[in-house]
Structures are given as C-alpha cells and as structure tokens.
Amino acid sequence: MRSLLLIAGMFMVMVFATWAYRVNNDTREAMGRVASLQREMQSKREAMAVLDAEWAYLNRPDRLLALSEEHFTSLQLMPLSPDHFSDLTKVPFPTPEDPLLAELIGAAIIEVKGGI
Question: Residue ranges of the domains in the chain?
Fold first, then answer.
C-alpha cells in the first residue's frame, strides 16, 4: 500500500511539474508577443508623429499662400471676396426631433441675423 501511495505521489509530482513547465513556457511566449506588440505600437506612434510634423510643415499658411499665388492662373482660381459667403439663414438645417435643440438652433439663427 505504501509503495502504491509513493508511486501515485511521484506521478502527481510529474504531472504538476509538466503543467508548471507548460504554463511557464506559455507565459514566456505571451510576454514575448506583448513586447513585440509594444515595439510595433511605439514604431507606429513614431511614424504618426513624423506624419503629423510633415502635415504641419506642408500646411503652413505662408507656404499655402505662396503656392496659391504661384498657381493662381494655372488653377483658374477666383479671388476670394465677401460675396462668396452666404447668410446662415440660407443654410437648410434638418428639423431636429428634440424641441430644446430646435430652440437652440432658432436662437443661434436669430443671433446671427442680429449681427452678433
């Protein structure tokens, strides 16, 4: 009986050791994937920062003004004047479902008409 308990105990130790080994390997593999994803995310953030900087550089007002003046005739642009803009009352707003929202839109239109 004692040898049967000893064999069963050794078997249980081997089972738990195998389980612990697998859990350890799975954990290390998961940690490697997490580290890889974090590196990838960091590189994407850096690429986005570069793209943001390029966008800001390309959209500088002085650069856009110079380009518009340079290509004014070739693009057949019209000079910008106040009559290119319309009154807010001529904008077709959708009818809101909420009565409070309708009041706010109406008040905004009245303020614009009043010159505020």
Answer: 2-79, 86-116
